[in-house]
Amino acid sequence: MHPLFHPINLQEETLEKIESFCRTWDLGLDISIQTSGSTGKPKSIQFSKEQLIASAKKTNAFFQLNKESKGLLCLSPDTIGGKMMMVRAIVGQFPLYISEASLNPLNDFHMDIDFIALVPAQVHQILQDHPDKLKHIAHILIGGADISMNLMDQLSQHEIRAHQSFGMTETISHVALREIGVQNSDIYEGLPGVTFSTKDHRLCIHYPDIQAEIIETNDEVELIDATHFRWLGRTDFVINSGGKKIHPETLEQQFTTIIEGPFFLSSIPDDTWGQALVCVCEREQSISKDTFSSLVRNFEIPKFMAFTTFIHTKSGKVNRRETQAKITAHDWIRVL
Questions:
Q1: Is the sign of the CA dihedral 99, 105, 111, 112 positive or negative?
Q2: Which of the listed residues 192, 218, 252 is the one where a domain comes to its end?
Q3: Who has greater pLDDT, 168 or 61?
Q4: What pLDDT, on the 0 to 100 scale, is given for residue 42?
Q5: Quick check: is 232 in a domain?
Q6: Could you report the per-residue pLDDT of 179-232, keeping only the tens digit for each?
Q7: Bridge partners of 40?
Q8: Are 174 and 247 contained in the same domain?
Q9: What is the pLDDT of residues 17-58, one digit of tens each?
Q10: Is the pLDDT confidence value at 122 over 80?
């Protein structure tokens, strides 16, 4: 166990994963990281110790983390988020408390910390139980899944300052951040030394400290300048309905205020529209066309809804394609 790491009531399996990472780190071996598989087949990517250090230095510089700081790791050490929390502590020479991953890792945690990385589900639960505990953490990094408008509103209401991350496994961790909560912005700012361009409106990442080649993504963005962009959605999820381009992920953030439980937007072939916008929910419910129209334009209103149990990837993300493949033509209910 690294001397900077302070485990808190960890299970044997979690301890072994952390110790395994420490052995790999000490030997200077490459770190293997698995992609989520949410948009394609999962694959393993190898990164060198030097690449992980470069990434950690940029995050530490952005948040001004140093040996005077304290961090909490409450993500699985199997994930890229968990691994990078350990690397940031080692590089920044600051103590890292480590707890089991849970919905509310702050429930029985009473020490002062400066830096924490959370997924949206954890943020949601902490806001329900102990919102004041988040107020006392200087730097809150939220990633791993989409953040709903409802969750951002709650952060703002509780006057909590946080940052949403943008990145992918290929970039080791985030390459850009946007402030949410008290100062809510829809513009992402690149980490020091990272610049952006576009190709057919898709984001291209220039990250020489990680790899020499330009990283081309399937994310459609509005490029503000070389270090700032506004994210619109993934091009592989874009829906063309009646000649109108729809970014389902952007709409999903708005629909969290009217749809109960987990859901996602997708499309099905349609003779009239080409692609008809549809809403897939886990919880059965009835939402009228008028309710949707209070939030969005007419062409952004789902034409059909369906209800099914979601399939998830190993990293916990919803596998949209496999989930929708379970739905038959008879399951779709027209939105009236």
A1: positive
A2: 192
A3: 61
A4: 63
A5: no
A6: 999 888 999 999 999 999 999 889 999 999 888 899 999 999 999 999 999 998
A7: none
A8: no
A9: 999 999 999 999 888 887 655 455 667 888 999 999 999 999
A10: yes
Average pLDDT in the chain: 91
The reply to whether the predicted model has a pTM over 0.85 is no
Confirm if 264 and 234 have CB atoms less than 8 A apart. no
- Whole-angstrom distance, CA of residue 74 vs CA of residue 119: 10
Tokens read off for 140: 């809150």
What is the number of structural domains in the chain?
2
Contact of 289 with 336, CB cutoff 8 Å? yes
Question: Other C-beta atoms within 10 Å of 67: how many?
Answer: 9
Phi, psi of 282 (to 5 degrees): -85, -35
For residue 277, pLDDT over 60 is answered with yes
Whether residues 157 and 243 fall in one domain: no
Q: What is the mean pLDDT of residues 309-318?
A: 82
Read off the pLDDT of residues 125-165 as tens digits, 9 standing for 90 and up. Answer: 999 998 999 988 999 999 987 788 888 889 999 999 999 99
Amino acid at 63: F
Q: Is residue 217 part of a domain?
A: no
Indicate which CATH number applies to the domain containing 165.
Answer: 3.40.50.12780
Burial class of 22 by CB neighbour count within 10 A (0 to 12, 13 to 18, 19+): middle
Domain assignment present for 225: no
Same domain, 177 and 52: yes
Does residue 170 sit in the same domain as residue 292?
no
Greatest extent of the chain over all pairs of C-alpha atoms, in Å: 64
CATH number, domain containing residue 287: 3.30.300.30
- By the 8 A CB rule, do 279 and 263 touch? yes
Given a contact cutoff of 8 angstroms between Cβ atoms, the answer to whether 120 and 151 are in contact is yes
**Does the residue 259 lie in any domain?**
yes
Count of CB atoms within 10 A of residue 42's CB?
13
Q: Which of 192, 209, 224 is the last residue of a domain?
A: 192
**Domain hosting residue 275, numbered range:** 238-334
Distance CA 152, CA 149 (A): 5
DSSP assignments along 243-295, one per residue? TEEE-HHHHHHHHTTTS-SSEEEEEEEETTTEEEEEEEESS-----HHHHHTT
pLDDT at 245: 86
CB proximity list for 243: less than 8 A, separation 6 or greater: 274
